[in-house]
């Protein structure tokens, strides 16, 4: 049976025009016995082809079983592969992993590993070339191929001066070397193939046939040309000979290949012979996790010892019996599945961070685990909610656990480099993230290749969000609104190509923190290459690929709020002598919940957005689990599925709590019958729609790739039919599936929400009890969150915090807390708030300060500050405490020139000897001072610009917005005032309208005064 030995997928970026999955599907439909995905110096797309091969095998097995049972044959695979009725049930294409090696001299050879050892050498070869070059490049020489080529079938491509290298390979590898002949479809293939056959005979190498496909189907020819134009940075109509002459460079069947190689049919047969010698499959990859054995203890003994010690640490007065039983159950299951080393690795990473004072917090499914709680990986008590360990580690699913640990965003690099140092770069590497074409990028790059102007592309991009579709009536109407004609042929073709390219891989980037760590050499399991960031190495497979192969990863992630909380804890220890961590904060403080119920949450983790601030007073959280729901509910999944308002109505007693069935009642009871969590959506699929655990797992996996290839929609028919068959309402079923689709982008599992809810409570507790400390830590952790420093400062002052300006003798780089003279603490702004300052410069100023600076020149002389920076300091008004206003300080700063003062005038710089007469400068107005504050620091402690404009905006007979709260019930006025309300930071609506008060009344539930208004 014919085997295609050198197919190029779209993981040869901007060259191949088909997904690896599409090539495998097409091979199955055409009866191709084996298919080698051989991308250029890469194996990035291999796992996707391997996974689709598995799915094809399952589909074929199901079809065969249906035929044997003489029963109805329906869709065989939810991903949509086996819906073609012409599928040959006896054809399951075998994937041959490989790569097309392109040497620096231009020589090209497709290499296919015969066995597992050959695969390891191929990975070492690719790692060698990739680590020599910058990200995305590979530098290999003939000597490298000779050194690492044992165990590989080599198909030489007759490109350039190939004969000399081929003779060298023949001398070293003998029968493993073949000459690959591929048609060019230019009408001269017969003569070309005959000449290659003569060359092969003269060299003593067999001739092997290949179609060298760039696409699975001829319909992708236009896409191939567009990709070439993008790669070469030109328009499609400028490609010339670089464009494909036709759509023939596609995957071919055996019959087509025999026709193309008429007279040389043996070359077609040899392709199958080569494939038979290549027995390696990715299923043979046996991932070995580091044993983590130390001191003679086995991994199981060490994990049990650490977990039980942690139990005593977490529960000094003795752990409840339920928790002890949960711990023993988890240890037993972990031991049965052999995952002890994984938990030990995570423990060691967290222990390193803790030894360096780096705050960290496990999230995701780790919150389900008592073991993780005892190891210090997470601070979320497993007694919260009704989460179960089997959501995290399940014997039935036989899936590796996945622990995500967040570290302070400013110090995560320390943890990453520690992992590299401990395990070595040959044993540890970060996962890749595949950057796919999405709406805006696809529009820009495809449109430019198709010759559309930049103005047109900008207008088109403005109508697209995310993975947005560019087809349909809605898009047509939008295009007409911006002056484009959807019926124009070039525009219509461009839109079609934009739609088609979405989901294509564009390039590889590094995962945010997913580490692969191995017992043996990682670079014999998968190639390792350089990342863009210095001192980072990555592998070419993403998280879905390693899940497919059962490879464990440790997620080392970054979270800005952890930096903020740790800095706040340090300030509390320094100024109040209080030492806290996430697990020891006073729990369930009613004052914290009172603050959140008022939507006083600026800066509080996860609940600081406008949407959350709007929701908090309606939700009225009173306990930790309410925060878990609060975090999860304001997400596209629940919102898109219309789950938010039903939940609120049921929580407030406005709607009866009902369950579609008793079975679903057990799943939905804790959320009042409304599905809010990802786990609940999956349980609905199993219980309500009759999904098998395997189908539910496929659905869960599809959620992660929903925005890439749109595979979640393939489950919709199966889901809806199952729900209706089991007696559920069609509207309820549609809402549930809509929510599942929403989870594909931003849905939260319950355990993840619980981990984040702990950070919500911690940040809210700090804001409620120590607003100055919290604001200081928040400013020192910027950039992060929704709010600018000016808004954080304004909020702190509203909470009674005294905020002091930057001072040349009192400030440091970071913002600090200092005694306010009345037994409290004031917040002193640091040099980091000055736009023009860098940390290194600020530290020089502080180091040279000694007993303080007496004038502007002393800073220049003692700290070696450049004149332009002296001017920046003066403009930030840091010399005010020296008795100099902004203009006086700037006058003195501009007089400083040169690298060092002349000896004759050195004494004058400290106020002795010669002194220049003081210049009389006009005083700045409040408005001018405020403007300069914002220019220098993006905030002002003097006033807000609205304070100067308010007298002009509020009529004499009107009522200011700030004063309407003093109205009494039943009062009515005819005065007008500006609306919407504008706070001290200018927050509010975008426009202004005049409104009239029509009466005041008390809210029957809250007693809050509310005013009915009408637009004037």
Helix content: 40-55%
Total E-strand runs? 21
Which strands sit side by side, in order, in the main sheet? 4-5-6-7-8
- The coarse overall form would be globular
Beta-strand share of residues: 5-15%
Number of helical segments with 4 or more residues: 40
**Sequence stretches where pLDDT stays below 50 over 5 or more residues:** 72-89, 705-710, 965-1000, 1004-1016
Structural class: alpha/beta
Instruction: Calculate Rg over CA atoms.
Output: 34 Å
Query: What characterizes the major β-sheet?
Result: 5 strands, mixed
The termini sit apart by 82 Å
> Please, what is the average pLDDT?
83
Description:
The structure is a single chain. By secondary structure, the protein is an alpha/beta fold. The protein contains 40 helices and 21 strands. It has a five-stranded mixed β-sheet. 43% of the residues are buried. The model is unreliable at 72-89, 705-710, 965-1000 and 1004-1016 (pLDDT under 50).
